[in-house]
């Protein structure tokens, strides 16, 4: 018997549909009185848990076929022959065993969800109303996502459903994609009918407006103070889908742009100048003017007036700087919680990106290896490689690219996309320069056929 969950225990879309249909047939059969168990029922109960999930699915498919035919012949109720009774019993055991295995895998996914699931539907703890039932809702949606990925061999660690199937892929895949998107759209924490662009469900921001590392650096400004976000609120923030986190980060960054200027350094400089002039003023008023010689009265009066005038200007400047600094401190106190929540959201987004990039580094897909080569061994080189992978995956997300061999797909027709592609390729040029500096092996064109033959 399988003890630990195996992703192969999850059904694909077709297998899930067959299982649901079979379960309906079995319920109808039970409602008219379940058929008697076959003579070898006890042996079957012992054997079924030992079978592979693939064998069990074959049993489910066979049971569905036999019972569907019995229903068409009108023999499902009361006239089920021995073969039908056997497969009704076997397929029931198989469905139950497969259901337990699927539940086990989904529970493990809920405990340790990959970045692409967290980005799309958050973590199972997230519930805007504080209710207890979010885990069941989460695993239901996760089950549909995983079935789609198995059905259509989606392995993208940054997008739960891969690219939108906009190219001709067949009505079945497009229909399945739309059904799963609807499940995600109405899952806990998502935007329902307002979620008009499924691209926002990806790990990387398709708009490029929220760069998690840069946002985190801005919100980590020590001048803001380290306001502690309550643990319960932190859990809710970290469990939200990525598009909700980006909204929170965008709000915090927008506030940060309106933050009054920091005049603390200027205030210290003004106070130092004021103290220096005050000393000079006192010396100038002392007998002898501080140098043993008393200047003419008119000169002393002019010097006093100049010093007093400058001191008055500094007093006014210090008062204005203190007032501005007080306004900044009041602004910080008023917006500290929002900024702290934005910092937590940025931390979570950055963590999800790191996890997705780690998956890409561990098993780089062909389109990344063609552009960047294999990830280098050094820590510095892997960091630079990750920067390039982020640029490419962000572009692929924004423009729904799913070409397995070409990082950017075909040549775009849209001028705006062409301009963005040029910018990305220029940035990748700098990434390649960085990889060369770290000693990473660069991708190269294969040699001509005659040179390859000579090498052999």
Q: What does this protein structure show overall?
A:
By secondary structure, the chain is mainly α. The protein is built from 16 helices and no strands. The protein has helices at 13-31, 41-47, 53-73, 82-111, 115-121, 134-151, 171-185, 212-219, 231-238, 242-257, 264-285, 297-362, 366-372, 379-398, 415-437, 449-455. The longest helix has 66 residues, at 297-362. It is elongated and about 125 Å long.
Annotate the secondary structure layout.
Elements: H1 13-31, H2 41-47, H3 53-73, H4 82-111, H5 115-121, H6 134-151, H7 171-185, H8 212-219, H9 231-238, H10 242-257, H11 264-285, H12 297-362, H13 366-372, H14 379-398, H15 415-437, H16 449-455
**Number of E-type strands:** 0
> What is the percent of helical residues?
55-70%
Oligomer: single chain
Mean pLDDT: 85
| Share of β-strand residues | under 5%
- Computed Rg: 34 Å
The helix/strand order is HHHHHHHHHHHHHHHH
Tell me the distance between the termini: 50 Å
Query: Which stretches are poorly predicted, pLDDT < 50 over at least 5 residues?
Result: none
**Main sheet record:** none
Mass-distribution shape = elongated
| Number of discrete helical segments | 16
* Structural class category: mainly alpha
Essential attributes:
mainly alpha; 456 residues; 16 helices; 0% strand
């Amino acid at each position: 018997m399988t003890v630990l969950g195996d992703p192969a225990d999850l059904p694909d879309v077709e297998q899930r549909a067959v299982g649901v249909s079979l379960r309906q047939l079995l319920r109808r059969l039970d409602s008219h009185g379940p058929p008697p168990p076959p003579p070898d029922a006890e042996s079957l109960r012992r054997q079924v848990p030992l079978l592979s999930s693939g064998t069990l699915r074959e049993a489910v498919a066979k049971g569905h076929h036999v019972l569907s035919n019995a229903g068409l012949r009108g023999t499902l109720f009361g006239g089920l022959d021995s073969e039908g009774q056997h497969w009704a019993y076997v397929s029931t055991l198989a469905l139950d065993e497969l259901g337990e295995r699927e539940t086990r895998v989904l529970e493990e996914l809920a405990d340790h969800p990959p970045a692409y699931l967290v980005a799309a539907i958050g973590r199972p703890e997230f519930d805007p109303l504080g209710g207890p039932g979010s885990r069941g809702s989460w695993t239901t949606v996760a089950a549909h996502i995983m079935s789609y990925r198995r059905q259509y061999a989606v392995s993208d660690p940054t997008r739960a459903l891969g690219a939108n199937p906009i190219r001709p892929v067949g009505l079945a895949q497009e229909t399945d994609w739309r059904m799963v998107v609807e499940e995600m759209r109405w899952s806990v924490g998502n935007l329902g009918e307002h979620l008009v662009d499924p691209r926002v469900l990806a790990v990387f921001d398709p708009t490029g407006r929220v760069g998690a590392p840069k946002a985190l650096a801005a919100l980590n400004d020590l001048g803001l103070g380290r306001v502690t976000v309550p643990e319960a609120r932190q859990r809710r923030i970290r469990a939200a889908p990525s598009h909700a986190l980006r909204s929170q980060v965008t709000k915090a960054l927008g506030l940060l742009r309106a933050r009054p200027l920091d005049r603390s350094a200027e205030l210290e400089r003004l106070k130092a100048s004021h103290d220096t002039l005050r000393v000079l003023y006192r010396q100038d008023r002392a007998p002898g003017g501080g140098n043993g010689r008393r200047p003419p009265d008119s000169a002393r009066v002019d010097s006093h007036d100049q010093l007093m005038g400058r001191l008055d200007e500094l007093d006014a400047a210090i008062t204005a700087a203190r007032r501005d600094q007080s306004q900044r401190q009041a602004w910080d106190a008023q917006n500290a919680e929002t900024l702290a929540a934005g910092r937590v959201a940025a931390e979570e987004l950055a963590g999800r990106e790191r996890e997705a990039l780690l998956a890409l580094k561990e098993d780089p897909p062909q389109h990344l290896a063609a552009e960047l080569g294999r990830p280098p061994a050094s820590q510095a080189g892997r960091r630079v490689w990750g920067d390039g992978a982020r640029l490419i995956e962000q572009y692929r997300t924004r423009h729904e690219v799913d070409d397995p061999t070409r990082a950017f797909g075909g040549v775009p027709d849209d001028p705006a996309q062409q301009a963005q592609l040029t910018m990305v390729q220029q940035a990748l040029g700098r990434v390649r320069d960085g990889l060369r500096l770290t000693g990473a092996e660069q991708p190269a064109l294969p040699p001509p056929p005659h040179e390859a033959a000579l090498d052999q």
